[in-house]
Design goal:
about 475 residues; alpha/beta; FAD/NAD(P)-binding domain; 2 domains; 14 helices; about 15% strand; binds NADP nicotinamide-adenine-dinucleotide phosphate; Putative flavin-binding monooxygenase; FAD/NAD-bd_sf
């Protein structure tokens, strides 16, 4: 989504000399990879689509994965991006040459020379496969939710699903309906709220298609509604708001689960909002179906045909589904980017990811990160943050062009001051290591390096204009 968004905005700005390197055979990122049954977005479609490419054809208020994937493919056609796309082109290395002031990029046996490098590799793109003893010896199929195998047939199979995050909650009701038996292995329970979702009627879709004003009105209304969710996670009253909303989640659970013991095992022991709050109307009912078991005893090992828990119980399985999330703190692309002084981005980030305004990294000239550190959102649409970052990047490029500059680089002290301010804001949120463990926090230091801790509005204000203050610049001949 970020790579295609950048391509569209570059073209709109009249910049056409660029390529988009995609490691797989198709565009779509998250929405190409997460094809598990039930995959859908938790953010209303009006806010999730790019503002410059509204999606009035989506049929659900919370669009399904395949709808968004189709939308992104349509964007490729509608905005004429095909000539720029290089599919099946995983980047092996991108190396900055300070003399030439160019990036040398190697991808799938080809070399590219570029003045600028934009990374758009996604925050949640590297599946996390847990180190469970014996996992490699399992004889049945092992699937990760983000590497789904459409040919895997669950009919009549005994399925072990590990994890109870956003992916699991969407997948479980579907597997519960098709598998002969489903064991759901829960390490810590999520907070779950009702999923307020409905089909978008044909009349609405037709109105949205014809009326940009209506689309804008609805988008603005949804924007403010979602922005107000931040009250639950950050700011002066978030503890009180979180407690109230947890009351709603408990009521949702009571309505759907009459069994007191099951409710006890499903009730989180951390404040609502510390991890991603989930939305589902069919997860709890699925756990009550015949053949479905919630297992809270920790997994001790996997054998060739079963999952064994600490109490010594071995539950036979034909398929293991890993709904175990993503590696966020050490993005794979960081090992492949070599900046000034031959320093790898992964080395610059050995103590944790950091970037000025979440976009530029000291020691890596002419490089911009999209949806990099602290660019996740716990309360609103990622697309909003992405578009703010695109505004910033394009403003930087335009200003460089006007001043005849060849190189721009953020100063280390600028980045340090920004990161210190960011961590102060994080202290006023629920995303702290003593409250719960989540992908928001870097396990190395417990810092939130994944999620933006303030409003989208404040991020937009911070990125509206690029300023050369706090940056080092060079003209062509230095
Ligand atoms: P996740 O939220 O990180 O959940 C991973 C789950 O796996 C957690 O329950 C975790 O337990 C468990 N787990 C990890 N390692 C384990 C181990 N060694 N043993 C046992 N359990 C283990 O991942 P996700 O569900 O894929 O979701 C990731 C993010 O993707 C979401 O937060 C959301 O931002 C996005 N997403 C969005 C949607 C949507 O819009 N509807 C759908 C799917 C994903 P602990 O909780 O104890 O760590």
């Amino acid at each position: 989504m970020s790579g295609l968004g950048a391509a569209i905005r570059l073209r709109q700005a009249g910049i056409t000399d660029f390529v988009v390197l995609e490691r797989f055979h198709d565009v779509g990122g998250t929405w190409r990879d997460n094809r598990y049954p039930g995959a859908a977005c938790d953010v209303p479609g009006h806010l999730y689509a790019y503002s410059f490419a509204p999606a009035p054809r989506w049929r659900s208020t919370l669009p399904k994965a395949e709808e968004i994937h189709t939308y992104l493919r349509d964007c490729v056609t509608d905005f004429g991006l095909e000539p720029h796309l290089r599919l099946n082109s995983p980047v092996d290395e991108a190396r900055w040459d300070g003399t030439e002031m160019r990036w040398h990029i190697q991808a799938a046996g080809r070399r590219y020379l570029s003045r600028f490098l934009i990374t758009a590799t996604g925050l949640l793109s590297e599946p996390h496969v847990p180190e469970l003893p014996g996992l490699g010896t399992f004889r049945g199929a092992v699937l990760h939710t983000a590497r789904w195998d459409d040919t895997c047939d669950f009919d009549g199979k005994r399925v072990a699903l590990i994890g109870t995050g956003a992916s699991a909650v969407q997948c479980v009701p579907h597997l519960a309906a098709s598998a002969a038996a489903l064991d759901v292995y829960q390490r810590s329970p999520p907070w779950v709220l009702p999923r307020l979702q409905r089909p978008v009627t044909a009349t609405e879709r037709s109105l949205y298609r014809r009326s940009p004003v209506l689309r804008r009105l609805v988008r603005t209304a949804v924007y403010w509604l979602r922005e107000s969710w931040l009250l639950c996670f950050a700011g002066p009253v978030h503890r009180a708001v979180s407690t109230c909303v947890a009351g709603l989640a408990r009521a949702h659970m009571r309505r759907q689960i009459p069994e007191r013991d099951l409710r006890r095992r499903l009730t989180p022991a951390y404040p609502l909002g510390c991890k991603r709050v989930l939305l589902s109307n069919d997860y709890y009912p699925a756990l009550r179906r015949a053949g479905v078991e919630l297992v809270t005893d920790p997994i001790s090992e996997i054998t060739d045909s079963s999952v064994v828990t600490r109490a010594g119980t071995a539950r036979p399985a034909d398929v293991i589904v890993l709904a175990t999330g993503f590696r966020v703190d050490r993005p794979a692309i960081a090992r492949r980017i070599v900046g000034q002084g031959r320093r790898r981005l992964s080395d610059a980030w050995s103590d944790g990811m950091a970037a000025d305004r979440n976009i530029m990294v000291a020691g890596f000239p002419n490089m911009f990160l999209l949806l990099g550190p602290n660019s996740g959102l716990g309360h609103a649409s990622l697309t909003l943050l992405l578009e703010a970052q695109l505004d910033y990047v394009l403003d930087c490029l335009a200003r460089m062009s006007r001043r005849g500059l060849a190189q721009v680089e953020v100063l280390p002290e600028t980045q340090r001051a920004y990161t210190a301010r960011l961590h102060q804001y994080v202290q006023r949120t629920l995303w702290l290591p003593h409250l719960c463990r989540s992908w928001y926090l870097d396990p190395r230091n417990g810092h939130n390096t994944a999620v933006w801790p303030r409003s989208v509005r404040s991020y937009r204000a911070m990125t509206r204009r690029f300023s050369f203050d706090g940056h080092r610049v060079h003209t062509q001949d230095r």
